[in-house]
Amino acid sequence: MKSKYGAVLFALAIIGWSPVSARVVEMPKWKTLPETPSLSRPSQEETVSSGNAKIWYAVFGEANAKSVTLLHGGGANSDYWGYLARNLSYEYKVIVIDSRGHGRSEFGGRPLSYSGMADDVIAVLNHLKVDKTAIVGWSDGANIGFYLTLKYPERISGHYAFAGNSNPGGMQSPPPASAFHAFAERSPLEFKKLSPAPSDFTKVQAALSVMWKTQPQLTKSDLQKIPVPTWIVHAEHDEVVRQSHAREIAVSIPNAKLVLLKDVSHFALLQNVGQFNGSVQDFLRSLH
Is the model's pTM score more than 0.85? Predict the structure, then answer.
């Protein structure tokens, strides 16, 4: 028996198995939060005054190419677009914007709103003399995108809305030990590293908390008025936005397409870079 057992272990060792490794269960990628990427060196980078705050932006890629603007999620910053911005810059003029009170942009001290942050985006586009752009929005960025398509439809060629919500009722509480909890621990560290006013973190969080509890407030009638090509994109394991809510939004927007990303969560842009970037590329090609 001992010789048989030893022979089996020897054979398993050849293929890389061991009693210890057999007990290790790999964490599903949708439960992990990969490291935040970095942005490449931009061709242009500065701040633009909008209302009572200076809004930071950076530009990558071909100056005369079609434009795509990337809007990050709440509590995050434009660095999270590092992989996508690099991927798109070979074909597009890519604009990334740090939302008011996020990353390198100033807070301004007033209540935050998605409508107001849509105005900030337009201020950047006006400064860059960009007449029309596609929007790729993630979470809060997608919500800002909804307001852009309603307030400034002539400026938006299409909207890729990943993990957005049309009202606070579309949200759900993330489960324990989720990627979202890891993000909540990372967010203040990145804020203090990038912000022009690191001590504003508590004030910004308080303003975000009020906004998330009360906004957006887009009715079915509002969504039915969105005239631009829209993809509603949702992750199979999104921790904070209900999948049924994403379906409700997709049904309400005329001719919207619903896309479900497999085996990822609210942080799909980091968890499966190839799948996410490929989906965005498909969307942008659909606009041509």
Answer: yes
